[in-house]
User: Fold these one by one.
Assistant:
Number 1:
Amino acid sequence: MGMHVKFWGVRGSLPSPTGPEALVTRFRDLLHAFFDIGYSRKAEIEKFLESLPPHRLGGYGGNTLCLEVTTGAQQIIIDGGSGIRPLGYDLLKGPCGKGKGEVHILFTHFHWDHVLGLPFFTPIFIPGNTIHLYAVEPDLPDVLKTIFRKPNFPVQMEQLGAKLVYHRLPPRQPTRLGEITVTPYQLDHPDPCWGYRLEHQGKVFSHCADTECKRSNREDLGPDLPMYQGVDLMVFDAQYSIVEVVEKVDWGHAAALIGLDLAMQEGIKKVAFIHHEPASSDDKIAQAEARTREYYERQVKTSREENLGLHEVDWFFAREGMSLDV
Amino acid sequence: MDIIEDKQGAIVLLGLVGRLDSGTSPQMEEKVLGLLAGGAKQLVVNFARLDYISSAGLRVLLMAAKKLKASGGVIALCALKPHIREVFDIAGFTAMFPIHESEALALRSLTNMDAPWDARG
Ligand SMILES: [Zn+2]
Ligand SMILES: [Zn+2]
């Protein structure tokens, strides 16, 4: 079995539930669409729902960053945004529910959207579980103390049921985690942020969020270039449009077009865009996805006509709950 | 990519040849910053011989426009091939730059301006 990736949270910056008003608007639109098509019977509901693009139904999801990578014998969680709460409930069905769980969480950095789910990650309260926490930056234990501290949270770090084990990862050096090899590379983000290259049975998964990707050619990327080479699946920061990236210099986020160009240049096979802007509605994210599609198709055509040698890439904007094999 | 530089009065003309992408955009950035440091205020970029532009190229152009604007200058683009123009449209860049059919029209638009950027409204 190869690596399997599940997206538990793909929203950037802040959890962004779809509000009641937006939901009412969505239900109304869908009911209109159902009858406008000419449907009228209950038996036609499933057919109708299946015909809709996913963003018109469930949307992209509002939980912040949390991904799960599994192989047959190993599980790695990347970041503890609010998406880690439902993942925690899922883990309770296994050894974690009996106090016999072993959990591995890699942190890219400690911005709120990547740690705020930890106080609601149930396995951390259950005695007998061991939670291994990994980061490149040395302040991980302090960050945990800050999260589990009165008056912001009633349970202090020392009172957590599970045993916490801290691991500091050496930058740009492989660390073996069970059957997965993890190598951190630096991304372009305020307050240091590290991407992770995960390798297993010759397949490579690359986690590139959060990043502004100011460096996008081989020379500038220098020691961090392996993050983008020989990659089967990359997740990439697509919070902004390309215009916003220039308006928000040093805010630390990129646009889908930037990740796509990098993938076409380096031959990355598949890209999942994440870290969606919290202020964007599902429609707006879907529009950005459609524009990215136009851009991609235009550049592939140009590459063929001008012999530019760009690679073709399979890509999508990730939605919460999606999962795929690497 | 080659950048061919020319001058017409106070207006600096840059002709781009080849590809403006992540590999060549640092060269363009350096060129524009150098011109700005030298006091250039009016810039015409001729795309007639540009074959390809990527997001890195778009990024450096918008950055140049912002910097020029901040120092009271102006940038105009001209002679985009249809497929490059299409990239501008998709990226939402068409509205962010004065874009002209030909170099002559771009030059005329700058020569006729009193207060270059603001006069455009
Ligand atoms: Zn973030
Ligand atoms: Zn961040």
Note: Chain B has one domain: 2-106.
Number 2:
Amino acid sequence: MTTLIELERITKTYSSEKSTTQALGEISLRVATSEVVVLMGPSGAGKSTLLGIASLMIRPTSGKVTILGRDVAQLGESGRDRVRGESFGLIPQSPRLFADLTAVQNVEVASLNVSRANAREAVERVGLEHRVDHRAGLLSGGEQQRLSLARALVNRPSVIVADEPTSGLDDHNAVQLCTLLRELADDGAAVVIATHDARVLPYVTRQIDIISAGAR
Amino acid sequence: MRSLTLARYLTRPHLRRYRTALAITAITLGLVAYALVAIADQSANAANRADGLASPALRTIEIESFGANDDPRPLTISEVESLSHKEGVTGSAVFDVVQVAPISPNPEGVFDTIVVGVAPRYLPIQPPLKSGKEPAGPQEVVLPVALAESAGLGVGDTLTVEHIVVSDSGDREGVDLELAVVGLFDDQVKGLDDALTIYSTTDTVVGLLADESGKPASWVEERHVFPRAFLTVEELKDVDGTVGALRTEGFGATSVTTLLAGASPTLRFLDALAPVVWVIAGAMTVALAWSIATSIMTSRRPEVGALRAIGWRRAEVRSSFAMQMATLGLMVGVTAAALFLVLAAVLAVLSGIQEGGLLAWAPGPSAAWAISALSLPLLASVAFALASLPIVERLARMPADAVLRDTRE
Ligand SMILES: Nc1ncnc2c1ncn2[C@@H]1O[C@H](COP(=O)(O)OP(=O)(O)OP(=O)(O)O)[C@@H](O)[C@H]1O
Ligand SMILES: [Mg+2]
């Protein structure tokens, strides 16, 4: 078990000219290989914010972020993009696929140095072998979410990050997706899920409750 | 290169989605390119035609003895000849009219009461010949067609006139003089002289002047002050400068162009039209490229947000979408070039079929065809890429964490 993500005493305050919002109180988090960690909490608690900080999309207001043993405070914008592209696989709440590209094309453009064969493999891995050359816009919601997972795993990331991955999915599709995430963890990836959906709980190793910073 | 791959994959759907706007742009560009080539062709034609801008009359300046200064500069043959050695001057002539009375042919008595003038021949400002040749030797003249007809004269005939000679004793008497008719000129074309003027060589006119004044020809050349002279410069643009220079030298000078007001309003209109057409076509291309780019960038925001979240760098988003816009522009340009060539070829063939007909203006094949066909794709491509630059930039600046804030659309 190697620690892949290490967040120490993280806080995040969004401030604009008009208002400041404390999205996260002080929070620490460690995620290691083969773990499925779920961040639970009510809406607005800061789950997505924490996920964004862990995947280098958001800079914390204070605290230390160590990814794969490396302090990322010094990294610039494109350096963070590169680390995220190489070591992370992201599943957004809404898949945001190119509707007029095929399933395999969507996966192919996702990551650097991905061959057509790699992309096809990833699509098959999520059980969409019969949809490889279908246009993404014609796939069902559950299929689109799995394609989003294929797009996240095609570059064999060390960490999979998912924001509300089961929202809008029926039980069958939700179970299918959680099973796939669990399999990836069993293969050695670290998985972090932000959700308030209790259906993911059977598949997780650890649950972290996020309490709204404003509520404290 | 995933940015190139994405550009490749998205080009076809974008072509399909925006085909109407793209087709309109291509058709406009093709038509405009053709219009510009046709206009340029018309201008070039007019500028090269002797009865158009290439006419030496437009480059001719009338000179008089009295300039802006108090003391007149005498307009003698030697003075004018010194002027004609100036840079850009292609020819000059002094001008005086010697009155003579034709006495042949009688018995009809046609010429009984008329007097005609003999003036030096200077082609730039005088009507062209209808038949015969220009006067070259002594006593050779060309007559207006109407005068020759009424007198029953033709090329090769002799016209006998009476003119005044001052004898050694100082008496003025009429003397018969035989002039050889070597040509007839078109009196329907308006020149600067009276209808009853016949033309001869400068030497002949000088000889007549010498006879009238009782002085030798050399005296006339040195001393006789002619009422006016003409000077023709090489290029139209030199006219104003030369007029100014002549005035400072003490002559009176007027450009003949100013006498022929509105030499070619149509042509000037066409010349002014070309840049306007250019600007309109350019603005339309840019506006269409802008609106297509805006539509693409707005509709692709969610997808690009996902790409940013999974590690696409801003530069990659920028280059991918700039490539897409340049490719769309290229397609528009290629279509426009094809349309241009088809249109140009069809109209050129049609204008050849019905000589002088409705389509006589259609330009034939020229280097302009090749230039248009090659530059349209390039220009359209660059215009599309540049016009969409700010919009592509806005897309590229999308933050990576935007995906965390949206819900399923
Ligand atoms: N970019 C931002 N600018 C300003 N405020 C923000 C921004 N992003 C998030 N917030 C605020 O921070 C708080 C936490 O937001 P976050 O999206 O992390 O919550 P969440 O737990 O994911 O909620 P949900 O379950 O509804 O997705 C919210 O109050 C939100 O309004
Ligand atoms: Mg959230």
Note: The pocket of adenosine-5'-triphosphate (ligand 1) is lined by residues A 14, 21, 23, 41, 43-49, 196; B 404-405 (CB under 6 Å).
Number 3:
Amino acid sequence: MVKLNLNELEKLRKNTKDECSTEIIVSMGTCGIAAGGNEVYDYFSKEIVKQGLPDVLLKKTGCLGLCYIEPNVIVKTKDQPAILYGNVNMETAIRILNEHVRNSQIVNDFVVAMPSEDIYCLCKKQPEKR
Amino acid sequence: MNRYIFLSEPGNRSSDLFFYIQKALAEKGLDKKIGLVRTQNVGFYSSMPVMRVIPDDIVYKDLTHENINRIIEEHFIHKKPVTQLLHKVASPYVRLENRNEYYKQFRIVLRNMGCIDPENIRDYIKRDGYRGLEKILKNKMTPDDVIDELKISGLRGRGGAGFPTWKKWKLTQEVPGDEKYVICNADEGDPGAYMDRSTLEGDPHSILEGMTIAGFAVGSRQGYIYIRAEYPLAIKRLEIAISQARELGLLGPNILGTDFSFDIELRWGAGAFVCGEETALIASIEGNRGMPRPRPPYPSVKGLWDKPSVINNVETYANVPVILDKGGSWFAKIGTETSKGTKVFALTGKTKNSGLIEVPMGMTLREIIFDIGGGIKDNKKIKAVQTGGPSGGVIPESYLDTPVSYESLQKLGSIMGSGGMIVMDEDDCMVDVSKYYLQFAVDESCGKCSPCRIGGKQLYDLLEKISKGSAVDQDLDRIKRIGQAMLKASLCGLGQNTPNPVLSTLKYFPEEYDEHIRMKKCRTGKCKDLVTYLIDPDKCIGCSLCALRCPVKAITGEKKKPYFIHQDMCIKCGECYNVCKFSAVKRD
Ligand SMILES: Cc1cc2nc3c(=O)[nH]c(=O)nc-3n(C[C@H](O)[C@H](O)[C@H](O)COP(=O)(O)O)c2cc1C
Ligand code: SF4
Ligand code: SF4
């Protein structure tokens, strides 16, 4: 990568667009990994290839602070609010992929409310406020 | 779907309420437009059930059937929020315009958690990362401008003592010379605390940016992060972050094409608690044994390799980019008069929800424990909360309405510390808790000065005596005297603060000490030498449950006849006491 100068940083910031319409984000701090976040991540990563889902981006993130319900997974789709799932085991992961990611059906029962507001634009993918 | 209702109920069960709302929406023909989602909630415990409407981001409480009909009619059909039913919980200590009023927590340090991939610098940049640094360089701010901004913000060190960060930077800046260092203290050794680890793992660039800004302000070209080797994931992510920042020209020579150069390297610590003390930490980086030295001279004037060095905590640095980006006065609108901003706590112990939280300074302990932590597990009663780990103290239930700030916690005999917050319930014995912390301090004392080396051991032995029932009344005076001596005469913070846990429990729970000493009893059963478990033959129905549970097979008997505990074998684990459904096992 080329080193940035003073004006190019802002350009990079603006030009970094979301490449995919759907994101799956797995919480992978030490707490998430200890609770099984790795397996959930590996499952998604295999299935995305196997099922041919080029429009789905799989990401890691750090600890969300909700260590008592790790592993946590966030799913963002184009026209739904970001959904945070807690206590995601393999069974739930399969349901999240099949029902939510592929069919936009939120998997009730495992949803956790976001704990805090965001000082920078949390959940950019939420529909605009009216 | 163009709107969503997130319904949170106690216990996360499907109930009538869920189906009632579903039906009511269907009757109005709204079920295709409004999605209904059941959620587990964080931050609303005292007032469940509640519902959050997305994307309006409004929370309603008092969800009677009548009120639900009203919300559907007014909010969803006529698009007018029902103001009487709004559930606003935001802390009055966040005095920002346009802030969302439905959240208890407020995240500055944890701003990117869950939003960015820590191994991808672009994610950080996209969320306004490196904009604080960019502003400084673009607007040609001087080091004094940066320090002024920090002064306006009121930021104080998050590593424990709460020293104003701008003052520390100013001291280093004023020393002439161009060989100065910026150090990040990521030693985090308090048992029960992991805020710094999570921040480094989840958002490493925020630390790099904060340190780079410090480097600019004090005139340093080199930074070190002193991190314990037990944090391999944090180390890995920091290494990735450093190399990505170098590639983009955000670290290294001529940052962003300017003539400002700054680089960062990692230094691993072996995990000794005392190496978190700044002078011991510096000795450890220099390759010497990690032992504190007397201050002054302070590291800001004479630090690493005798050069002026700024040393700050991880969380302190994580605040800096936001202060530069949004302005010191923005930051100063959060928190109390003397304690600005937010504090991250690792909430653990007997709360229902344990985890990392970030709240504005000024929030009460009760709000933190009950509204965010969800209260105490198994409907037990809260006894106290411990802050500051082995250097802090306990705060009893009666003081839970104290707003959190550096001064208020200190006044109660505890400290803010780095952010461990351990909640204790009626099953926790205050003597046992103090003994635990003292054991830790004795193990971790470096042994350089005698008040700490000898005093700590003496204190521990006295507590051991109390917990065995062989102490006398005068021992309490001894504890106080030794504590005072350690406080006054120890060389570093470790020894000075070692007596805190025992002195504070003694202050707030004298009756528990009294029970141990005079009645030779421990009401919680934690002090094993002071309890016996006995089976009441009148109550025992001979179900054999306790005998099955006993890990050492100390209980024998015949089914349907009273069972018996063999005292010589019993290890006093209390399993039988907890498992008996007929209260036949007595703790005496
Ligand atoms: C025994 C002992 C252990 C300490 N451990 C830490 C630690 O793990 N992390 C930390 O940031 N500060 C720790 N400190 C405080 C540091 O000495 C120093 O005050 C702090 O790093 C300054 O940073 P701040 O101004 O940002 O708070 C410790 C102090 C003592 C006496
Ligand atoms: S107070 Fe304890 S840890 Fe600190 S220098 Fe003295 S012996 Fe060492
Ligand atoms: S206290 Fe523990 S060891 Fe003793 S009898 Fe009961 S179950 Fe057995």
Note: Chain A has a mean pLDDT of 84.
